[in-house]
Amino acid sequence: MSITERILKGSLAAVLLAGLAAVGTGCGKAAQTVTEKATEKVIEKSIAKDGGKADVKIDSKSGKVQVKGTDASGNAYEVKTDGDNKTVNFKQTGKDASEMQIGEGAKLPADFPKDVPVLDGLQLQMVQAATEKKEFVVQGKSTLSMEKAAAFYKEKVPAQGWKELTTMNAGEMQTMQYEKDQRSLSVMLMKDGDAIMVSTQTGPQ
Fold first, then answer.
1. pTM
2. Residue 168, beta-bridge partner list
3. pLDDT tens digits in sequence order for the chain, 205 residues long
4. Looking at residue 108, what DSSP letter applies?
């Protein structure tokens, strides 16, 4: 299982958070230091089983964990916890300069298309960017209603010069397809409890 797959399935996140919890049970500074080093080695060995390499740093005082390394395919990655024992942020950079970010720390890349609207207040959860291919995938959560979110895209996307191709409204899920200058843009909205999940994908046709 690759580093990316383990993050998506939550297994590596579980290892990191469990390791941090174990560090927190140490008695005294000396004991914590020993436990930190031991836990770092355990996580590094766990990642090595996938064929990757990792440098793990644990700070029990702040509650933060940082893992930097390369996976079996030679892609660089970085995993961070933010000290709340819940949030794990992941960033992977491929050999072709492609990038994936997972977690609350995900951000739009500087070269994200200016003519692709992003819903106001969208809480980014995953961003994929293949700069050389000009392909971008953005996923996030919004507290807006399905109706308001759909209205946003139906107004803002055409205003940026995109031509509407198809739309589908299945109640708890809506999709919209657009094209512009040999590029395609798809928008999907899906009900998720009291919120909605938003996914946009754009790239060459």
1. 0.71
2. 175
3. 455 555 544 555 555 555 555 555 555 566 667 777 888 888 788 778 878 888 888 887 777 888 888 888 888 888 887 766 566 778 888 877 788 888 888 899 999 999 999 999 999 999 999 878 889 999 999 999 999 999 999 999 999 999 999 999 998 999 999 999 999 999 999 999 999 999 999 999 9
4. -
Cβ atoms 189, 146 nearer than 8 A: yes
Per DSSP, the three-state class of 137 is strand
Other CB atoms within a 10 A radius of the CB of residue 105 amount to 14
Residue type for position 147? E
| Residue type at 203 in one-letter notation | G
What DSSP line would sit under 19-81, residue for residue? HHHHHTT--HHHHHHHHHHHHHHHHHHHHHTTT-EEEEEEETTTTEEEEEEE-TTS-EEEEEE
